[in-house]
Amino acid sequence: QVQLVESGGGLVQAGGSLRLSCTASGRTFSRYAMGWFRQAPGKERELVATITSGSSTNYADSVKGRFTISRENAKNTVYLQMNSLKPEDTAVYYCGARPNYSSGYPYWGQGTQVTVSS
User: Fold this and answer.
1) What is the pLDDT of residues 46-87, one digit of tens each?
2) Vertex 45 angle, CA 10 and 54, to 5°
3) Which band of pLDDT confidence, cut at 50, 70 and 90, is reported for residue 102?
4) Are the C-beta atoms of 107 and 95 separated by less than 8 Å?
5) Which residues, 6+ apart, have CB-to-CB distance to 37 below 8 Å?
6) CA nearest neighbour of 80 among 50, 39, 42, 104
7) Is 4 within 8 Å of 95 (Cβ atoms)?
């Protein structure tokens, strides 16, 4: 079982930056792929960025060049650096953990609210 706790959300003006953190419990964090997802009101949850256990990354087209996902295995933490934020980035952001044997993300955090004002 993996428990995930997100932090770092808040209110920021358009063009600003935020860094989200997600800290995992357990000793096998380095073996998990990690992902950041978001869900805006009235919309489905969507992929934002992922990072494999080998630190390969993937981004949604809407955030490429603005967001950066990274991980620090010594701290069991994955980060999402968000720059040049836009009002359409407003959502609840969730991190997820995917074991190597799984095709999906069975572990989720509680989410952190990001609000970008225009």
Assistant:
1) 999 999 999 999 999 999 999 999 999 999 999 999 999 999
2) 85
3) confident
4) no
5) 45, 46, 47, 48, 93, 94, 95, 96, 105
6) 50
7) yes
